[in-house]
Amino acid sequence: MRLLLVEDSRDLATWLAKVLRNDGYAVDAAHDGEEADDMLRLVPYDLVVLDLALPRMSGLEVLRGLRARGSVVPVILLTANASLNGRVRGLDEGADDYLVKPFEVAELEARIRAQLRRAGGRPAPLQRCGDLVFDTTSRDFTLAGVPLALTPREQAVLEALVRRPGRTLSKAVLAEAVFGFDDRADPSAIEIYVHRLRKKLEGSAVTIATLRGMGYLLRHDAP
C-alpha cells in the first residue's frame, strides 16, 4: 500500500514516515501544497495524510483539486484547528477523516487502517488464502494460526498479493507497493523478497507462483 504524507514540518514528516514504513507501507512525503498536488497528479496513492496548514498551496486547496479531478482516494486531514467549523469545512471539501494536532501516532495508524478497509470495500477484517490469514485491523499475518515474522518490505509484498487474490502482480506493481520516491527502487529486489517469503511459507499449501513474463500470484494448492 502506498501512502502520501503531506506535512510542512520536515522533522514531523520524517518521523511519521519512518513509523509508517515500519508498518509496511510505502511512503512518499511532500512538504508544501504544490509539491503534493503534483505528486497526486502523478501517482495513484492508496491513501493521503494531508496537513491543512501548508506553504504555497493550502491543504484545502490540494483536497479541492483532488476531488475536482474525480479522485476518491481516502484523505485524512491533520489540523491544529480544533474548532467544529474547521473540522466540518474539511469534511465538506471531501476529507474522509481528520486528526487534531497533537495526536497519538497509534490513533493515526488505526485511522489509516480503517480508511483502507473502507476503500477496499471489505467489511470483514480477515483475508485468507488457505492457512494464511491477514488481519486488516492489526495488519498481522498468521500461518496455520502461528504469527508470521516479516520485515516491513516482506510484509508490503505479501499484503499486496493477499489483497488481490487470484490476480497476477508484476514486479513493477509490487515495487510501487514497496518503494517510495526516496527509496532506491530496484524492481529486481522484489525477487529477493519473494524468495524470502517462499521460505517462510514452506510446509504450507500457500505458495507464490511465478508466471513468466507476467509476475507473481499468491495461491492455495489444496490437496
TrEMBL record:
<feature type="DNA-binding region" description="OmpR/PhoB-type">
    <location>
        <begin position="124"/>
        <end position="220"/>
    </location>
</feature>
<dbReference type="Pfam" id="PF00486">
    <property type="entry name" value="Trans_reg_C"/>
</dbReference>
<dbReference type="GO" id="GO:0000976">
    <property type="term" value="F:transcription cis-regulatory region binding"/>
</dbReference>
<protein>
    <submittedName>
        <fullName>Response regulator</fullName>
    </submittedName>
</protein>
<feature type="modified residue" description="4-aspartylphosphate">
    <location>
        <position position="51"/>
    </location>
</feature>
<keyword id="KW-0238">DNA-binding</keyword>
<feature type="domain" description="OmpR/PhoB-type">
    <location>
        <begin position="124"/>
        <end position="220"/>
    </location>
</feature>
<keyword id="KW-0805">Transcription regulation</keyword>
<dbReference type="InterPro" id="IPR001867">
    <property type="entry name" value="OmpR/PhoB-type_DNA-bd"/>
</dbReference>
<dbReference type="Pfam" id="PF00072">
    <property type="entry name" value="Response_reg"/>
</dbReference>
<dbReference type="GO" id="GO:0032993">
    <property type="term" value="C:protein-DNA complex"/>
</dbReference>
<feature type="domain" description="Response regulatory">
    <location>
        <begin position="2"/>
        <end position="116"/>
    </location>
</feature>
<keyword id="KW-0804">Transcription</keyword>
<dbReference type="InterPro" id="IPR039420">
    <property type="entry name" value="WalR-like"/>
</dbReference>
<dbReference type="GO" id="GO:0005829">
    <property type="term" value="C:cytosol"/>
</dbReference>
<dbReference type="GO" id="GO:0000156">
    <property type="term" value="F:phosphorelay response regulator activity"/>
</dbReference>
<keyword id="KW-0902">Two-component regulatory system</keyword>
<keyword id="KW-0597">Phosphoprotein</keyword>
<dbReference type="InterPro" id="IPR011006">
    <property type="entry name" value="CheY-like_superfamily"/>
</dbReference>
<dbReference type="InterPro" id="IPR036388">
    <property type="entry name" value="WH-like_DNA-bd_sf"/>
</dbReference>
<dbReference type="InterPro" id="IPR001789">
    <property type="entry name" value="Sig_transdc_resp-reg_receiver"/>
</dbReference>
<dbReference type="GO" id="GO:0006355">
    <property type="term" value="P:regulation of DNA-templated transcription"/>
</dbReference>
